Amino acid sequence: MQAERAGPIWGAAWGKFSPIFGHHHLGHHCADVAAVFQLLLSRRPYRLKAEAALGRILNPTEIGCLTALAFLHDIGKLAPGFQAKIWPRKGHLATIGHLEAGWLWAEAPSGDGPGASWHHVLAAWPELEQWFSMILSHHGRPTSHPGSGRVAATFPTVASYDWQMEHRRIGAAFEAWFPDLDKARPPPAEPAFVHFICGLLTLADWIASDNRAFPYEPRLRDDYWQTALLRAETRIAEIGLAADILTLSGPPGWELISKDHPRPRPAQLAIGGLTTGERLVLLEAETGAGKTEAALWRFAALLAAGEVEALYFAVPTRAAARQLQRRVNAALALMFKPVPEALLAIPGQVVAGEAKGRRLPDFSVLWDDGKARPSRWAAEHSARYLAAPIAIGTVDQVALGGLQVKYAHLRGTALSRALLVIDEVHASDPYMSEVQRRMARDHLALGGHVLLMSATLGASARCRWFGTGIAALPEEAARPYPAVWTAAGIEPVEREARADKAVEMRAHLGWTGADAADLALAAARRGARALVIRNTVGRAQETFAAVQAEAPELLLQIRGIPTLHHSRFAAEDRALLDSAVEGALGAKGSLGGRVVIGTQTLEQSLDIDADLLITDLCPMDVLLQRIGRLHRHKRARPAGFEMARAVVLCPPGGLDPLVQRADNGLGAYAAGPSLSGVYVDVPGLAATLDQITGQPVWHIPEMNRVLVEAATHPEALARIAEARGWQAYHQRLHGKTLAEMGAADLVILDRQAPLISFPDDEKIRTRLGEEGAMLALPDGTPGAFGLPVRNLTLPAHWSKGLTGEETVELLSTAPLRIGVGGKMFGYDTAGLTILATEP
Fold it and tell me: pTM for the full model?
């Protein structure tokens, strides 16, 4: 239906306005939102989740009451001060926001005649203030009552707009569309239920505010409710929010997941054999064990059982998300008919399946395949990612649903119908881990499902996830590995014979760029594929410069240009880097010596296979993740590298200095305001180094459990701290962990408490630490490899004094030099660098 192209009807209340399409009557917009809300709440899966939050079954009358409340979400727009926002002449009338006016509407005189009674009926409902707090939070943030005494100023008499007449007209429609409300009552305003409904209403408002699906009609129609229901039914189905929107192409067996491997591997078989009643599951299996396919099998089983309707796959980094999205998108062609598109949940990128979108000034999206599919609706804004049937993104999107930030309720409610998979779970970040655990707890409380996956998770972290006590070190070190954990305990997983890998471990005293470059070049000249992972971008760039000066032909290349892989590249260039790394070190990569240098961005999700790993010292779980890049595939190895080899770069002065001053991402300032390194657990680093020097050959995955517990178990760390005189540092480290968990507790959204106003979003992060400014580059700015890039994100310590809103001056393009806020930055094949700062 074509939207009615009409100018504003100044005497009528508008709910939506467009300079192109005129306005949509307020009563119609309220009906659109209420219709979407009612359909979502009345059907699986959201009804079941709402009932889990309430603790009992909802009856149709209560759903009707909640739908009536949803209708009132924009009632404040009746106020002349809001309507005047589009008037050509406002006179002396002060404008007002519709949320504030909505609170005051409850105190306004309702007038006489038809439609007057609806105001009084609602006023008699119990707990109305709690419900009004919910319906007026539909823009993503809870609102509080602005205070009384300003009703007359908010609803004055205006000659050109009779708000009371409009109130009666909308009220008459309301009474007709929602009869018998005087005999009904909404359900109790239980906090968890109110939080859930808040998110559902926000979702409904967003869906119903799209004039592509709800064309504007400026004149109020008595029969519009049926129109709204029909439009809502169509829109919910086409954007992927109807029940049973995903259809498996067959029974949820292994043959549905993989056609290349006729038989599942042990870890996959263990997950495929779980009952659908297990809601929290942890899979511990070595890198390369097929955990992604295991997760997809679990999703298929839960989907077939009606336990879930969607999938969100969360990974630690954007690079990992991009890589995984391509893999999952390819797998969906086998699993479903019709085939859905996997959405990439990375802010700033609009990707659904293989299609990429570009946002236009009118908030629409132009897709590069020319298809404007409604099913891509969730991809068009980051707040909607979790409403997608299938999405792959970072753990940050999950965390944003558990923090007191805008759209947290929308994210949490949208996620409730999904299997949440969190990949590469580890214990390195207490703040982030606590936020994830609390969000997962709320998800499970709604009857949701969570699958955690890790190469090896230490007992301390595992026990926090499951809410159990930790056993003594010998007992924890003796646990089976690989394994599946559920609420019932541990289930051993058969170890693959072909997965056993002997790794020659060696500690190297010295961790300069030259140290790493010499080791890598010596191996590459013998035909080995050497992977160099440094803890910091600075050391990676230093290593890159040293190799480039001596043998640039051995380096990773893009379009014939030597380069390296780290986080300080533009998103467009990072995609090129991911592909280049897989081309150089992937299963189908050509043989021959080469050197690939990078940071932590290389340790996860990329399917790469090296003969030699050169890595900075790091925590044991991270080190095992990096070792997983060695001998990943069966292929010929150069002479001398038949056994996987790892060289761990260590500080030449030992670890004692690290408890006083951070270096190369390790340790911290003992007397400073914070523990500032990337990896600050020096006792844990010492325990890792002890295992390297004490056991020159590691058998992976046979030794994984013992290695991780030796370097993470509280008993082991306490002994090391005492033996080396680091007790004070160890205590401070423990205090830091408690402080970070406490910091998380202060900003986590407590869904067991009543709605409260949120603090400033700018002070709340999904990960502790400052965020850098994102600079918008002039159109056509060439990136590191000659292709246009749009943005560059600065590290936090380079961003002081910058907001990201500043105009960027393009100083030169070959090489690229930009100026902003008195600072100058360079960007080339080594990534982003800071060149100068004005005094």
Answer: 0.90
